[in-house]
C-alpha cells in the first residue's frame, strides 16, 4: 500500500532573546525551523523530539523543498509506524548552524549581510539549547522520548545529560559520546577540500552567486564513504566498470563506484551550504560529553532519571559498537535503566536510515514501554 507524500509543513520559531552559546557569545535573532506531526494530548506528555544527523534537517516526514524527495525518515514516522503519530506528537527541528530554515552562516547577521565565517562557533550543546527553546515555546515541559541517530544521537545524549528533567526516555542510534581521532581526520579532509576551492572566498561567497561547489562535493564524497560498509559497496558496485560502447582508460568515472560518489557529491551541493558544513562538522568534532562533566562519562548522567536504549550496527565502522558499549557502561555506573542491542545489517552507518526491520521493532518496543 502506498501513501500520498506529505508536503512541506515547516514552521519557524523566532526567539525573542539571544541564544547563549558555549563559546561565551550569544546569538541574536535566532530562527528555528521545525515540523510537527500527530496531536499533542491534553496532558502535553506524549511528545517525541527527533534529532537529525549532519546533513539532515527537520523534513523528517514532509517532502524536501529543494529535492522534492520524501522525508528522510518517512519509513519510520507516521500513523501505525514505529514512531506512531496516531499516538505521539512528533517534533523535528533543524539545528542552528544549518541551512534549512534555522539560523546559520548563510542567514543575515544584525548588519543585514550574511554571517559567513563571522558566525560564532557552535557546539552540540548549543544545538540542544535551540531545541529546549523550541520546547519552551511549545509549552512542553517533559518529552515522552528524544530520539536520534548519528549526530542526532549526540544531541539525544547531550539533552539527557544537560537537561535531564526535559525527557523521560532517550533512544540513541549509531552514535557516540565523543569523536575519535579518525572521525576528526575525515571531517578535516572535507573542510580542507571546501576551503581549498577558490570559490570559497574565505566564506564570503554568497554575493557572488556561486559557492565552493567542487570542494563541497569532494567533502560529501569523502564523508559518504564512511557511511557505507565494505560489504555493501562490494555487493552494490564491486569493481564493475561503467557500461560504455568502447572501453577507455583515464580519469573519467571508469568504475561504477566512482560515478555513484560523484553523483552523491554534486547532488549535495544543490541542497546544502558549504559554511554550514564547516560549522556543523566542527561542532561534532568538539563533542565530548565526558569532558563536559569532569572527564567521567557517568557523571554526565548523574541527574537523569530517564530510561535509555542504545542501538549499534555490526557493519558501522564510523561509530562502531564499542562506542555504544562505552555509553552503556557509563549509564550502568550511573545506575540508570538501559537496554542495548547490536543489529546485523549490511549497510554500514547508514543502516539507521534504511530498511532494517529489526530496528523498527526495537524502536516501537522501546517507545511503547
Describe this structure in words.
With 369 residues, the chain is α/β, with parallel strands linked by helices. The protein folds into two domains: 11-179 and 285-368, Rossmann fold (3-Layer(aba) Sandwich), CATH 3.40.50.1820; 183-280, Rna Polymerase Sigma Factor, Chain: A. The chain is built from eleven helices and twelve strands. The protein has an eight-stranded mixed sheet with strand order 1-4-8-5-9-10-11-12, with helices on both faces. A two-stranded antiparallel ribbon has the order 2-3. A two-stranded parallel sheet has the order 6-7. Helix 2 links the parallel strand 9 and strand 10 (169-173). It starts with 10 loop residues before the first strand and ends with a helix. This is Homoserine O-acetyltransferase. GO terms for molecular function: homoserine O-acetyltransferase activity. Belongs to the AB hydrolase superfamily. MetX family. Its main location: cytoplasm.
Amino acid at each position: 500500500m502506498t501513501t500520498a507524500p506529505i508536503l512541506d509543513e515547516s514552521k519557524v520559531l523566532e526567539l525573542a532573546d539571544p541564544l547563549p552559546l558555549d563559546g561565551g557569545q550569544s546569538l541574536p535573532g535566532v530562527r528555528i525551523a521545525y515540523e510537527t506531526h500527530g496531536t499533542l494530548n491534553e496532558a502535553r506528555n506524549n511528545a517525541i523530539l527527533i534529532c537529525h544527523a549532519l546533513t539532515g534537517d527537520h523534513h523528517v516526514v514532509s517532502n524536501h523543498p529543494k529535492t522534492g524527495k520524501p522525508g528522510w525518515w518517512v519509513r519510520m514516522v507516521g500513523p501505525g509506524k514505529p514512531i506512531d503519530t496516531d499516538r505521539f506528537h512528533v517534533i523535528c527541528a533543524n539545528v542552528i548552524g544549518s541551512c534549512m530554515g534555522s539560523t546559520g552562516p548563510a542567514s543575515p547577521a544584525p548588519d543585514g549581510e550574511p554571517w559567513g565565517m563571522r558566525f560564532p562557533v557552535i557546539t552540540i550543546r548549543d544545538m540542544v539549547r535551540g531545541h529546549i527553546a523550541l520546547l519552551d515555546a511549545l509549552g512542553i515541559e517533559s518529552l515522552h522520548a528524544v530520539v536520534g541517530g548519528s549526530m542526532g544521537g549526540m544531541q539525544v545524549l547531550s539533552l539527557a545529560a544537560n537537561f535531564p528533567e526535559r525527557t523521560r526516555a532517550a533512544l540513541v542510534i549509531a552514535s557516540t559520546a565523543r569523536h575519535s581521532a579518525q572521525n576528526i581526520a575525515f571531517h578535516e579532509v572535507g573542510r580542507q577540500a571546501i576551503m581549498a576551492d577558490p570559490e570559497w572566498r574565505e566564506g564570503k561567497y554568497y554575493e557572488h552567486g556561486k559557492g565552493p561547489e567542487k570542494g563541497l562535493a569532494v567533502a560529501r564524497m569523502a564523508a559518504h564513504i564512511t557511511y557505507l560498509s565494505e560489504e555493501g559497496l562490494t555487493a552494490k558496485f564491486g569493481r564493475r566498470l561503467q557500461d560504455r560502447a568502447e572501453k577507455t582508460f583515464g580519469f573519467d568515472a571508469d568504475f561504477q563506484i566512482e560515478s555513484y560518489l560523484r553523483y552523491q557529491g554534486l547532488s549535495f551541493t544543490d541542497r546544502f551550504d558549504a559554511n554550514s558544513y564547516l560549522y556543523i562538522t566542527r561542532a561534532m568534532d568538539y563533542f565530548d560529553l565526558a569532558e563536559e562533566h569532569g572527564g567521567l562519562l557517568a557523571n554526565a548522567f548523574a541527574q537523569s532519571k530517564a530510561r535509555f536504549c542504545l542501538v549499534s550496527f555490526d557493519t558501522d565502522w564510523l561509530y562502531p559498537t564499542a562506542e555504544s558499549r562505552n555509553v552503556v557502561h557509563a549509564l550502568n555506573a550511573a545506575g540508570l535503566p538501559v537496554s542495548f542491542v547490536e543489529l546485523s545489517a549490511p549497510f554500514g552507518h547508514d543502516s539507521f536510515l534504511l530498511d532494517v526491520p529489526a530496528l523498527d521493532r526495537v524502536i516501537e518496543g522501546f517507545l511503547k514501554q
